[in-house]
Amino acid sequence: MVNLRQSPLPDTMSANHDPAVSRREFLGLTAASLLMAGSISVAAKPETKNGMPYRTLGRTGEKVSVIGLGGYHLGNQSDPEESIRIIRTGIDEGINFLDNCWDYNGGESEIRMGKALRDGYRQKAFLMTKIDGRNKTAAATQLIESLRRLQTDRIDLLQFHEVIRDTDPDRIFAEGGGMEAAVEARKAGKIRFIGFTGHKSPDIHLKMLATASKHGFTFDAVQMPLNVMDAHFNSFEKRVLPVLTKDGIGVLGMKPMGDKVILKSKTVTAVECLSYAMHLPTSVVITGCDSLPILQQALHAARSFQPMDPPQVAALLAKTATAAEGGQFELYKTSHQFDGTVANPQWLG
């Protein structure tokens, strides 16, 4: 068995289910969100590059752009050359955090990103990708494929993707599990940091953190949905975010617009969605940019971002409270629509 780094997490995790927040509970939720907002608003003026704010990725000491480029949408773009232009423009404009995954668009997302990172762009980027393998063999094989597609000999952050089943933590940390492959890859210099992602339930995130602690391991980063709807329903913000910030684990916010589904609620704008996610103690907010205009929108939101004051937070949460009930605009929590490994269980190994 591979020895994992010794840095256990405190036993502060609860497995209680968090149902939809009623309007009567709204004031309490608002107070919690305001408390989170304070951790950003009282901070020193952030470091910037080309007008892009940078934050520190947990205990790693790495500086990452407050906005990150989501890999899935880049592979969805009909023109591969346009995807490359989006990535390179983003980097030229100050974005350094790049998101991807071994399974995105059958590998096309990583292939396009690998091409974009030629000609010196790799040195300007903090590169993250994800693997689905739950056992050592599958995880190691997927990592090798990702390195080849991305045309690099080292990935900055490797994450276990779609930790959405109650069985995932034990499988990953079992003898012969995927974590053994990740730790060996880190020792060999193929990756620098290790994290995990998921979008289904705070309970499963907390179990993954508890399982890591039981094995003497601390993740460098954790990715989860953080948005104006999550704040009200089965909330990662309420239950997981405080654990991560307390223990210095980098926070990667995703689905700020719920893959545009949140915008269909007609309660908030895209910039409001991005601003809310950035006001939380996130290291980076990952957003999909499948065109240059959408990229420019994200760049503008980041460059013009100001910490939200309590009345702004309260007003935004009040606008979304009713729409958020039942998770109808958070389909990644309430359906299998976003669960690639459910449709393709063979990816797990």
Defining key terms:
349 residues, alpha/beta, three-stranded antiparallel β-sheet, 15 helices
Written overview of the protein:
With 349 residues, the chain is of the alpha/beta class. It is 41% helix and 15% strand. The strands form 2 sheets. An 8-stranded parallel beta barrel has the order 4-5-6-7-8-9-10-11, surrounded by 4 helices. It has a 3-stranded antiparallel beta sheet with strand order 1-2-3. The protein starts with 25 loop residues before the first helix and ends in a 6-residue tail after the last helix.
Brief rundown of the structure:
The protein has 349 residues and is an alpha/beta fold. The protein is built from 15 helices and eleven strands.
**Radius of gyration, CA atoms, in whole angstroms:** 19 Å
| Basic shape | globular
Q: Helix coverage percent of residues? A: 40-55%
| Low-pLDDT sequence parts | 5-43
Number of strands: 11
N-to-C order of helices and strands: HEEEEHHEHEHEHHEHEHHEHEHHHH
Distance between the termini: 19 Å
Helix and strand arrangement:
Layout (H helix, E strand, L loop, with lengths): L25 H16 L5 E3 L2 E5 L6 E3 L1 E4 H6 L3 H13 L4 E2 L9 H9 L9 E6 L4 H15 L4 E6 L7 H6 L4 H10 L3 E7 L4 H13 L6 E5 L10 H4 L1 H6 L3 E5 L15 H10 L4 E5 L3 H12 L6 H15 L6 H4 L5 H4 L6
Parallel strand pairs: 4-5, 4-11, 5-6, 6-7, 7-8, 8-9, 9-10, 10-11
Antiparallel strand pairs: 1-2, 2-3
